[in-house]
Amino acid sequence: MTRFTDAPGSGAEAAALAHQHAVEIDPLRQDEAGEALVHAVPPPPRKRPFLVAFLALGSALGLGAWHHWETFQASLETQAEAVNFVPEVRTGPAQVDDGPLTLTLPGQTEAFDHADIFARATGYIAERRVDIGSRVKKGDLLVRIAAPDLDQQARQAEAQLGQFKAQLAVAQADVEQAKASVTLANVTDARTATLAGQGWASKQNADQTRAGMLTATATLAAAQAKVKVAEANITAQQATVDRLRTLTTFENVVAPFDGIVVARKVDVGDLVHGDAGSGTPLFTIDSTDVLRVAVQVPQSAAVGIRDGVKARVQVAQMPDRTFAGTVSRSSVALRSSVRTLDTEVDVANPDAALRPGLYVAVTFEVPRAHPRVTVPSEALIFDADGTRVAVVDAGDTVRLRPITIARDLGTRLELRSGLSSGETVVLNPPAGLQDGSRVVAKGPDTARTSAAQLSEQASAE
Description:
Blueprint: H1 11-25, H2 30-40, H3 48-84, E1 88-93, E2 95-97, E3 101-117, E4 123-128, E5 135-136, E6 141-146, H4 148-198, H5 203-249, E7 252-254, E8 259-264, E9 271-272, E10 283-298, H6 299-302, E11 310-315, E12 318-334, E13 340-348, E14 359-366, E15 372-376, E16 380-383, E17 386-393, E18 397-402, E19 404-408, E20 412-417, E21 424-427, E22 440-442, H7 444-460
Parallel strand pairs: 1-22
Antiparallel strand pairs: 1-21, 2-15, 3-10, 3-14, 4-6, 4-9, 5-8, 6-7, 8-10, 10-13, 11-12, 11-14, 12-13, 15-20, 16-17, 17-18, 19-20
């Protein structure tokens, strides 16, 4: 008997093998049924493709099961890590700040003394000695005004004063003459009265001498009144002369104080009018040895502002310089419209580095009335439950503590209530941090060092 193998072959080979098998079984019927056997008996199925498919399916199922098992194990590990995860956080202490409160506000420099110089004498500018930017001392001549009309008025007034003085002398002489007449009239009246009493003179003569005595007395009183009128005229005329003499001194316009000319509106030959206070000034002079810095202090800090509080003035265009100043005056009362306190800081300016009209930043050192606890602003948690901070309690347990903010100082928060000095707060708390969570606390210096090391490693790589 012939044994079939699983040798590969085509369909024709399988048919030939089947025919050979039929011949070996019954050689006598080979001729009769050979052809029919070839077409009636099917070839046996191939096993190799089924085996390959089975192995592939088993491998796929095994690989999928292996990946599923790995995923399941990874999820279990992740769940365990999430349950047992203890975040590492930076911490910082809550401190009591009893030092002065630093408050920076905008301000503007102003001249300590400012004067608009007007003309008091009417005339023409005969001479000008200063210009914009000229530094002057008190009493320095700025301009000279030619005022001939004023000079003539002064001379006329002085002449009239001389006339009144002469009239006074005449009046005084009349008084002396009247006094002599009164003396003579008194003597004559006394003599005539005696003679009339003895009968040596008539009664009429006695009455005439008495009338003469009364007339002389009236004449003396009139002369004395003329003296008083003359003296009053002299006094009035002397005032006129003094006024005109003073006006003539205004022909020379001088500096009222040490300063710098910041504006000039006249030149030689210009006509100026005296006592025109509402017109254009001749010059504007500012004193810059000491400057005033005007600052509007808000109500929140106005309570601590008083005379003598130290201040620092900085100008953006001079970043390398700081000017020391002192609060010298304030309005005491706040403006009701904006609730600010008008405050002036005096700043010494011997080298004229500062100029009037500069926009500056003024930093006050305001004494604290009540020391308060401060924390870094990065420790604040603001959510639906309000403002809170995470306090590390018992070494590694977090407690979310509600706080009340008194003042926001930028990098730090001044608290009115909620914390005590020395407590440890979490900086930049994670979003999922809950009350009672456990953390690994690290100081800010340690965290900063770790960040620097990571940065250096990244740079090296």
